[in-house]
Amino acid sequence: MDALGLDAWYSYGGGHASITVSDPSSNSGYTQYSYDPTEGGYDDPLATINAPGQMNVFHNVDPGGANSLDLHTTPAQDAALRASGNAVHANPGNYNPATHNCATVARNMLGDAGINTPWSPVETPWGLKDDLTNMLDPANGYWGSRDVSPVGAEYGGYMGP
Questions:
Q1: Cβ-proximal residues to 160 (8 Å cutoff; 6+ apart), any chain
Q2: How many domains is the chain built from?
Q3: pLDDT at 55 (0 to 100)
Q4: What pTM was estimated for this model as a whole?
Q5: Domain of 38, in residue numbers
């Protein structure tokens, strides 16, 4: 666990990506941001194309999960992640499985916090996970893996091709 409240988690799996960040205003100390379409999904992926998007904000969640990367962040980065997630919540835009999906929103949130990953023409949850893993610097432990109870997978969402 993040005793100092200075971590965020990128969760991936089940075709979905989300960001959980330390949040002193949450009773659990964490808030999860999870972007998905309001229409369609695995059962009707074509309906997700330019469907209205939504940023789900879950308070009182446990961080990490079996498919999560622990991102050792600063208080300023945590604040930037929350501000970015809240901005998408206020103005979610339209979902697109190729260009504006859960993984692209997560990548943009990370970028807003100064954690820049390589651009990809079609971002997927596993592709972003690979980019973050490749950024691992064992010397300073910037990233680390967590193996605790899964969080986020139950929210689903179509990730695109």
A1: 96, 97, 98, 101, 122, 124
A2: 1
A3: 98
A4: 0.82
A5: 7-155
